[in-house]
Each structure stands twice: as C-alpha cells, then as structure tokens.
Design brief:
Elements: H1 3-19, H2 22-61, H3 70-86, H4 93-103, H5 111-125, H6 133-150, H7 155-174, H8 177-187, H9 194-215, H10 234-263, H11 268-285, H12 294-301, H13 305-309, H14 321-344, H15 352-372, H16 381-396, H17 400-410, H18 417-434, H19 442-446, H20 455-462, E1 469-470, H21 482-488, E2 497-501, E3 507-512, H22 513-516, H23 531-534, E4 542-543, H24 549-559, E5 563-568, E6 571-577, H25 578-593
Parallel strand pairs: 4-5
Antiparallel strand pairs: 1-6, 2-3, 5-6
Helix pairs in contact: 2-5, 2-6, 2-7, 2-9, 3-5, 3-11, 4-6, 5-6, 6-7, 7-8, 7-9, 8-9, 8-17, 10-14, 10-15, 10-16, 10-18, 11-14, 12-15, 14-15, 15-16, 16-17, 16-18, 17-18, 20-25
Keywords: CBS domain, Chloride, Chloride channel, Ion channel, Ion transport, Membrane, Transmembrane, Transmembrane helix, Transport
Membrane topology: Multi-pass membrane protein
InterPro entries: CBS_dom, CBS_dom_sf, Cl-channel_core, ClC, ClC-type_chloride_channel
C-alpha cells in the first residue's frame, strides 16, 4: 500500500475508534460486506450466462455435437489460468472457508476474491455440471476477510463478517434472506445470538437489495403455488423423504468415489482429458446436465418435462410417460456423476445447486410414478419437484432448516411448510445416521479442522498446537553418564523432565527427575550409570502432523500423564503440558463465549 494511502487509512481508523462504537462499526461493515457479496454473486451469474448465451447458438446449430468438446475447452481454460496465474490447486469453496475459520483465524487470500469470478464462469459456461453458489460465497468471503484485515478487525469479528458475506451472496442469488441467514448458522456453525443476528440480517438484506438493483424483479424460479398441502398426501411426502435420504447417501458416496478415481491420475492434463470427454458424452446423452440446471428446474415446475429434457437420442420414445420417467431418473443418477467429474477434472464450482437439480428430478419422478400407477392417486408434480429439492439439500449438506426456508421463500409463502418439514427431516435423519460427515466436512474432520455447534469441540478445533508446545526442556544423550547429566542438564533446568535424544535429534526416551532422585547424591555411581540405563518410554507421543487438539486431549486422558512429547517430521519438537493446554483451552473458551 502506498505511503499516502496508508497514512489516510491510519487517520480513518483513529477517527473510527474515537467516534464509532465497535458494535455500530460491525453493523456498518455487515451492510458493506452484504452489498459486495451480492455484487460478486451478480457478477458470477451474469458472466456465466453471457458465456452460455454465446455458445447456445453453436450447440443448436451443431445438433448437440458441440457438447463433446465444450467441457474440455472450458476445463482447459481453467487449467491454464490455474497453472500460470493462480499457481496452486483449486480448493472446494465452502470447505476452504470452514478451514480458514477453524485454522487461519478467518484469513483468506486476496486472489480468492477474483479467482472464483474467472474459473467458475469458464467451468459452468462451457458445460461443467456444477453450481455457482460455492464460488460466489468463496469470493464474497474473501472480500470480507481482506476488508476485515484492512480495518484491523479481530479474528472473532472477522469470522462473523465472513458468515455475513456468505449470507449476502446466497440472499442475492436466491433472493431468500432468511434461508441465507440459516445457511450461515448451519454450515459455518455460527452461534445465533442477538450480537450475530443483526449483522447477518443486515448483510442478507443488503445482498437481496443488490440483486434487485442490478437484476430488477427477475426471479430464479418462475413459480406460483397452485396447490397447498393435502393431509392425504402425507404418506407420499414420507416416501419422498426416504427417497431423498437414500439419494443423498448415493450423492455423497459417489462424490468421494469419483474424486478418489481422479486422484489416481497424477497429471492434471490426464484429469482434464478424461473428465472433459466423460462430461461431453453425458451432455450429449442428457443435455439438462449442462451447466447449473436452473432452466431444467423451471421447466419441471411449469409442467413441461419435454422441454426440461431437451433434445436427446431418445426423443422418438418420449410419448411414453415411463420413458420420460426413466430419463428423469437418469438425470437423478448422472447429475452427481457429472458434477463430481467436473470437479475432479479441475473445474471450479459448488455442490449446492446440483443437489437442487437432482432433488427436483427425483421429486418429479416420484410424483409421476404415483400419478401413473393407475391406483387413482393424484399429487402435484410441481410441489413434489420443489420438496424433492429440499430433501436433497437437507440430506447432502446436513442443513434441513436451510432447505425448508429456502424452498418456502422460493414459493412465496408457507403453504408447503408441513410437507417441507416432513421430507427434509426424514432425509436428514436417514443421511445423518448413515454418514457422519458431509461433502463439505469429511476431509476437514480428518485433519481436525471441523467447526461444530458443540462448544467443547469447537474450542478444541480453534486451538493451535504451536500455542501450547513448550521447548524449554534440557535434552540429554543416551551415552551421557549420570554425573554428566546432573551437571549439564539437571542443574541448569527448571523442569523435572528430560527428553533423551540421539545424534539425529530423535526422541528415544524420557527421564523424570523422580526416577533419579534416590541416586542423585551417590557420587560413586556418577561414572558407571548412564542415561540409557535410566530412561524409559513416554506414556504417549503426540504427532504434530496428524494429531489434532481433540486427539491430544484424549491422549492426556488415556495416559494420565501431565507432559507428553511432540514429534514433528520424525524429530523431537518439545512437550505439551496438560496444565498449559487447559489454561489455553479456558482462555479460548472465555473469548469464544463473549
């Protein structure tokens, strides 16, 4: 930052501290963050739609044959950008935000602002079967994080403002401010207090107003509710809840299975080529898999399933409703595959909107099956399409309240609130019992970076091992005599514990002062007793790279020790004492609870 700008910022900060209270400043910042996140969402959306509109004529003219090459072109452009500009692998948007909040005090890089604005439109615009919500949230969160750093905002408030950015982006895309707030609470495990509620509300309103300002009254889903909830349909909504629950399990497992297959391809070029060809084949056979899929959802809501399916190799058979049902069920199956293939091949995008597409297809399939079984039942296909979306959202990302309020706001009322609750709750319960973690959280759980509504686990997750490692222990060598140890280490140490290290600084044992106290004054054995005869193995060892703070606490509990050695890169790093860890935990808990 130039000196003049830095000086101006310093003057502003001094003026702010004197004239604006911290609470008021946070509220003002939440409005700004909501506006900027909304602006980011509008930019991502319009950039993608611009690319799609340019390519649409070519797709029609080529009779869908361009589907074979467009995804590869888009993925190649993303690959070139990542290699020569971004210069590090793309990360899953929401997961990287959670990791930042958990382990990096809410700090996101400056390039996280503009990278999603470039890579997501290229991926989705050229046919990648992913969503734009994740990139919009990532970019907005990065804006919030860097603004917070610029204005010297503390880590805890920075976390709140990052959540405000996510609320602003979601509110802007879906024009659903309540669901946006609930998403921030459910996914980022934010404590919903009056202190956090007002900034989230202001950011959400700001995001919605930004969307209205730039897009007018344009709505994502052109839907008006014609049929409300009927009591006799309750069993069918239960059935839909069960179906979306199992579909959510399939979606999640397929995601990790396909990603594991792509990890076996070491070269990004091979991933790009395999992924691009696979997506192209799927798009040619099932055109609705192209891009996000909001057009597909809108056509289903309008009752026009033929337009939703588009031109496919099976057009000659679509007069048969069961062929239509089979094709829609195919979209349910292949949306998860196409989405994960796009991400595995190096594309940028989110999973939230693909879950909506898959849920809408599944809901429509269930309704069509009920209506065409010949048993005299009749249900609203558009209602089931909507509620199917809620079921998949609740199951896949473990956010039932977000799912309920999002669909309720989309419909413009709460006439479907009861069936939404039934389906979302059943889907969530089934998935939660089958899968401990979501697409967002599974990898984070492995490294102890998972945020939780459990305050104890949350505080442990926020603690850093470097903050509690103590290094003022005097090491000893196994070939040292007792006399050498007493004169060189014991007499100069304030601790009663001594790590035994070999020539390569590897820990091979420990000596506790109590072990040698009976022989400390027996000078006759000073030269005949050696450290290697006195040392013993530590009760437990902490591994810096793999153990998280929850595992460290468990090792203390299981071993009963008060000090445990830390091994980093195979070598001795220091000790963690239970007393220091509990003190750090208490301080973090007090700070978190305020």
């Amino acid at each position: 930052m130039p000196y003049s700008n830095k000086k101006l910022l310093t003057r502003f900060l001094k003026w702010r501290y004197r004239n604006i209270s911290n609470r008021t400043f946070i509220q003002l910042m939440s409005l700004v963050v909501g506006f900027l996140a909304g602006l980011v969402a509008v930019t991502v959306k319009n950039s993608t739609y611009f690319i799609e509109s340019l390519l649409k004529r070519g797709i029609v003219f080529s009779e869908n044959q361009l589907y074979f090459i467009l995804p590869t072109i888009g993925l190649t452009l993303v690959y070139l950008y990542v290699k020569f500009v971004h210069k590090e692998p793309l990360q899953h948007a929401v997961s990287s935000i959670i990791f930042s909040l958990s382990k990096k005090r809410g700090l996101l890089k400056l390039k996280d602002i503009y990278t999603p604005l470039i890579t997501a439109p290229l991926t989705v615009g050229f046919g990648g079967s992913v969503g734009l919500l994740g990139p919009a949230v990532k970019s907005g969160s990065a804006v919030s994080s860097n603004l917070s750093r610029l204005f010297h905002i503390d880590a805890k408030t920075r976390t709140l403002l990052v959540a405000c950015a996510s609320a602003g982006a979601i509110a802007s895309i879906f024009q659903s401010p309540i669901a946006a707030i609930i998403f921030a609470v459910e996914v980022f495990t934010l404590d919903l207090t009056m202190m956090s509620m007002l900034p989230l509300l202001l950011a959400s309103i700001s995001g919605v107003l930004t969307s209205y300002f730039f897009l007018g009254n344009e709505v994502l889903f052109s839907f008006s509710l014609s049929e409300g909830f009927k009591l006799e349909d309750t069993a069918f909504y239960v059935l839909l809840g069960v179906g979306t629950g199992f579909a959510s399990i399939y979606f999640t497992k397929m995601y990790f299975r396909i990603l594991s297959l792509f990890k076996k391809l070491k070269s990004p070029k091979y991933k790009l080529l395999v992924g691009g060809i696979a997506i192209g084949i799927m798009l040619y056979a099932i055109p609705p898999l192209y891009g996000e899929g909001f057009g597909f959802i809108n056509n289903l809501l309008d009752g026009n399933h033929l337009k939703a399916l588009g031109t496919t190799p099976f057009d000659a058979f679509t007069d048969n409703i069961w062929v239509v049902i089979a094709l829609l069920f195919g979209i349910t199956i292949f949306k998860a595959i196409a989405m994960t293939t796009t991400i595995g091949a190096g594309g940028a995008g989110g999973v939230f909107i693909p879950t909506m597409v898959m849920g809408s297809a599944l809901g429509n399939v269930v309704a069509k099956v009920i209506n065409n079984l010949g048993l005299g039942f009749s249900v609203s296909e558009s209602n089931f399409t909507l509620i199917g979306m809620a079921g998949l959202i609740a199951g896949v990302i473990h956010a039932p309240l977000t799912a309920i309020f999002l669909i309720a706001e989309i419909t413009g009322g709460y006439q479907l609130f009861v069936p939404l609750m039934i389906t979302a709750a059943i889907s969530y319960l089934i998935t939660k019992n089958a899968l401990d973690y979501t697409i967002y959280t599974k990898e984070l759980a492995k490294i102890g970076a998972l945020l939780s509504h459990n305050k104890d686990q949350m505080v442990l997750g926020l603690m850093e091992m470097d903050d509690v490692i103590e290094k003022n222990f005097k090491p000893v060598h196994p070939k040292m005599s007792l006399g050498e140890m007493l004169h060189q280490s014991v007499s100069k140490s304030k601790r009663n514990l001594f790590p035994v290290l070999d020539d390569e600084k590897k820990l091979i044992g420990i000596i506790v002062l109590d072990d040698i106290r009976p022989m400390m004054f027996d000078t006759e054995i000073y030269d005949t007793v050696f450290v290697k005869n006195l040392m013993h193995a530590p009760p437990e060892v902490i591994f810096y790279e793999t153990d998280n703070m929850k595992q460290v606490m468990k090792k203390f509990q299981d071993s009963g020790a008060w000090n445990l050695p830390v091994i980093k890169n195979g070598k001795y790093e220091g000790f963690i004492s239970k007393s220091k860890m509990l003190t750090a935990y208490r301080r973090k808990l007090i700070n978190y609870s305020q």
